[in-house]
Amino acid sequence: MSESVKNSKRQFRNIGLVDLTRYRFPIGSIVSILHRISGALLFLSLPAMLWLLQQSLYSEIAFEYFKGVTSHWFVRLLLLALVWAYLHHLCAGVRHLLMDMHMGLEKPTSKQSGILVLSVSLTLTALVGLKLSGAF
Question: How is domain 27-133 classified at the architecture level of CATH?
């Protein structure tokens, strides 16, 4: 009898690295992980961005040089990644602040807010990308 009781209980265990490939993360956890990644990206790129700003404000020649550097497609791609990081971190930060105030903690509203954060940040990033490419 004791063995049948032991077998009928649900077992909870940690997810291993092998299980991560099969595990389907909820949208809220994807947004949260991307929030951490975007924050780390912003933090790690801050010294380089401040140095580039300082150098571009040094003289008109330096400004024109960096203006020419930013016309390269790879630099624009890096700038677009930083823009995404900023916009995603901003939108997800607002979501987390609302959740700290106990708003949107239920599963359906959490899923909707996660989808909203991803769609708003990607749409705004696409608009900035179009602006960087000279579409308007």
Answer: Up-down Bundle (1.20)
